[in-house]
Structures are given as C-alpha cells and as structure tokens.
C-alpha cells in the first residue's frame, strides 16, 4: 500500500513540473513568432550612382591683330574657347570681357552669347578694344568670364586671364638748332638744340651726331634720358676748317630709344656759309 501511495506522489510531482515548464516554452515561442511577424526583412542596398564630371570651358588661345596696342588706338582681339569634355556639350554660353584698370575698353557691352559648344569642340570670339590715350605703357591683364550650362541644365561659371600689351607713343620734338648763318675759317661756333619729350613715357639714350663739310666737332653728344613732359638741351662746338668756302649743308642725326629698347632716328638738316678768314695787313716801316 505504501508503495502505491509513493508511486502516485511521484506521478503528481512529475505532472506539476511539466505544467510549470510548458507555458514558458510557449511564451518564448510566441515572442519569437511575434518578432518575426513585426520586423520587415532588411532591404537590399541600392547601387551607387555613377558620378558625372562637369564639362569645363577654358581659353585655349588668344591673339591681337598687332604686336601691341598703342594708347589711343583700337585693335581686334580673338579668343578661342574650348569645351574640354569628351562626353557633354555645353549650352546657353555667355562670354564677358573685363579689364581692371578700365584703360582698355571693349566695343559695346564686351559680351557675347553662343547657343552651344559641342564636346571636344571650340568657338572663337572676336571683338574690338580701344586703349585710352592715358593708358599706362605696360602689360594689362584682362579677364574672360564664361557662364554656361551643362547638358542637364546645371549652371556653371569659369574664367581665364589674357594679357594685352599697351605702349605709349613716342613723341619727341625739337626746336630748330641754333647754328650761325655765317662762320669764318678758324672760328669755333657752337650749336645747341632743345629736345622736348611730349609723350607719357621716358626717352632713353638720346644721342646727337653731326655730319657737316667744313665743320668738325669733338664727336657725338649724349643727351641721355628725357623724362616724360620734360626737355633737355644738347650743345656742341665746331671748328671751321679752311675748306670748303661758301654755303655748306649737312645733317644732325638724332637717335634715341623708348622704354622697350626700340631704336628711333631723325635727320635734321643743317646749313651755313663758310667765309674766308680776313687777315689785316700791317705796313712795313722803312
């Protein structure tokens, strides 16, 4: 009898333990199922989009229709703009010219419009410019601005610099040289000439050379540098020779250089009359 009672007690204990364990497993399974139902599956990563570079415009070359622009004069500038992109055209292009000192002015607005430049292609913009009379004699940087759109309509801007050389004109004038109308054999007359720089840049190495039959000088006369708006006088002495007599003509060669080393020459005519030296006769005493 005791064995039977013990057997039933063991069975009761086992059943109670089974009832306590099963709800926990069911709850855990339910929580796992709920988590799987509530969370959506992770999405696949989107492929990275390819980055397209912007097309670039640049000044490929430029030319002036002469070696330099002289103050007060006009010239034609040609600027070649290249689209360096190998895959895109550009459109709605506005080109503008601007010079900081305002001494080289464009004709009109200094702007131009182009509808399109194809990929790996170029266009040439031609326009007139004028240097003011007071423009400084030096290289002048100017800016070419390029505003345009790529093939998708995105606005882009770029700029490049060009250099325009300006020179002031050389304006050297002079007063007529003061050589006596008549000279006598054996005399040492002097000649002077006043040189005036009316330009806006300096004159260098002003030199006087004389070629006059019957008159000999001590050589060339170096006047030197003449600043803008100033004057210098060159003077030399001649010695009248015995031959020839009468009217003689010659030249004064005036040479000088500008600030760029360019050489200039002017021939100035000279003339005078050489008279025979008069000797006094003293009577001899007997």
Structure commentary:
Keywords: Signal. This is CARDB domain-containing protein. The chain is mostly beta strands and 286 residues long. It has two domains: 111 residues, Immunoglobulin-like (Sandwich), CATH 2.60.40; 104 residues, Immunoglobulins (Immunoglobulin-like, Sandwich), CATH 2.60.40.10. 13% of the residues lie in helices and 49% in strands. The protein is built from one helix and 18 strands. Strands 2-9-8-4-6 form a five-stranded mixed β-sheet, with no helix packed on it. A five-stranded mixed β-sheet has the order 11-18-17-13-15, with no helix packed on it. β17 and β18 form a beta hairpin. It is rod-shaped and about 195 Å long.
What do we call the CATH topology of the largest domain?
Immunoglobulin-like
Strand order of the largest sheet: 2-9-8-4-6
Give average pLDDT, whole number.
Answer: 85
Spans of at least 5 consecutive residues whose pLDDT stays below 50 are 21-32
Organism: Syntrophaceticus schinkii
Keywords: Signal
Signal peptide: 1-28
InterPro entries: Ig-like_fold
Based on the model shown, name its key terms.
mainly beta; Immunoglobulin-like; 2 domains; 5-stranded mixed beta sheet; 286 residues
């Amino acid at each position: 009898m005791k064995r039977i009672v013990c057997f039933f007690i063991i069975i009761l204990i086992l059943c109670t333990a089974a009832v306590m364990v099963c709800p926990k497993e069911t709850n855990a399974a339910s929580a796992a199922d709920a988590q799987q139902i509530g969370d959506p599956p992770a999405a696949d990563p989107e492929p990275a989009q390819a980055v397209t570079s912007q097309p670039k415009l640049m000044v490929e070359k430029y030319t002036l229709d002469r070696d330099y622009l002289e103050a007060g004069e006009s010239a034609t500038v040609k600027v070649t703009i290249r689209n360096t992109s190998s895959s895109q055209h550009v459109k709605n292009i506005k080109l503008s010219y601007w010079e900081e000192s305002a001494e080289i002015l464009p004709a009109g607005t200094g702007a131009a419009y182009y509808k399109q430049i194809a990929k790996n292609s170029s266009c040439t913009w031609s326009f007139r410019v004028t240097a003011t009379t007071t423009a400084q004699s030096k290289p002048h940087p100017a800016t070419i601005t390029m505003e345009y759109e790529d093939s998708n309509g995105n606005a882009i801007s770029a700029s490049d610099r060009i250099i325009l050389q300006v020179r002031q004109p050389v304006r050297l004038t002079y007063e007529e040289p003061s050589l006596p109308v008549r000279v006598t054999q054996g005399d040492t007359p002097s000649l002077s000439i006043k040189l005036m720089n009316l330009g806006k840049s300096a004159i260098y190495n002003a030199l006087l050379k004389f070629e006059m039959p019957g008159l000999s000088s001590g050589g060339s006369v170096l006047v030197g540098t003449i600043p803008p708006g100033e004057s210098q006088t060159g003077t030399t002495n001649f010695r009248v020779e015995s031959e020839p007599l009468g009217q003689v003509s010659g030249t004064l060669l005036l040479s000088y250089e500008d600030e760029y080393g360019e050489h200039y020459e002017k021939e100035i005519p000279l003339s005078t009359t050489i008279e025979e030296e008069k000797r006094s006769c003293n009577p001899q005493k007997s």
